[in-house]
Amino acid sequence: MAKKGILITGGSGLVGAYSVGMLLDRGERPVVFDVALNERLLSVVGVDTSKVTLIRGDMADLPALISAIRDHDCDRIIHLAAFLGEEVQRRPYSGVRLNFMGTINVFEAARLEHVSRVIFPSSGTVYLGSIGEGIKKIDESIPVNPPSVYAATKASCEFMGQAYAKRYGFEFICLRYVGGLYGPSPAGLKATREIAIQEMIRAAVKGQAAQIKWPYGPAEILYGKDAAKATVLAALKDQFKDKLFHIGNGDMVSGDDIIMAIQNRFPGSAIEIIKASNPMPYPETRLASDFSRAKEQLGYEPDYPIDLAVADGATLKQLENL
What we know:
Helix content: 40-55%
Number of strands: 11
Radius of gyration: 19 Å
CATH superfamily of the largest domain: NAD(P)-binding Rossmann-like Domain
Order of helices and strands: EHEHEHEHHEHEEHEEHEHEHHH
Largest sheet: 7 strands, parallel
Oligomer: single chain
Shape: globular
């Protein structure tokens, strides 16, 4: 019997594109379901798109989602399609409709088509309201306390996924990306931190001076390849002891740290940080995450501290024809 397919919603975005490539490398059969198919990004990160099923589809269209699963014999779903935090901040109703109801459609499709496992990448923002309340360690036991509409959509999906899985029998694996995601992808799909890092690297690659607005204190950042690695590990693992995993980097990184890494890779870079206001209602002071559960049970280890992520700038050069 042919290998079952793995449906990836949002599969041509930053984490999705890397995930597709990693699944192909492991002999899997990824099926991309995305409202804005980005074949260029897939190609730039090394995916042979002729070997991937690409479906242009909207998360609001439950029949289309069901058809994609049924027509391509998909038994697992990686659900990456979502609006980012700042987009939900600007358009809360649209954000709730995509992030929450789009995820409910995934659960419904999984229920109706007897999918065995749903991988749901959540966010470290779901617990940020608990920071500063005596919390000394950030691991999977931290109380959920979402301080924004975006964080609330993610937290709600965590609870609904657990309820659906318990009632209808599929596995629900929740991965909280606890660092701010970044990596080469179209700027229109990015949050402020991602845009700033990409602007820094772009200026360095082009040998141009730049002043970059940076509203953050030291925090974890998570390269897209590392997030994808953890996601693929969770999709392919045979059995689980736990169903919730923090996926992080463990390093607290400041804007100055990023500039130093860029200057080490591109000597003579003239990049200056300008302090800006924080676009989201999140605490300035953070703690590094403990992702030992993901290490022990998934075999996850991050491969890209900031210096190696900067050195991976060839992907951005290709994407933007620099």
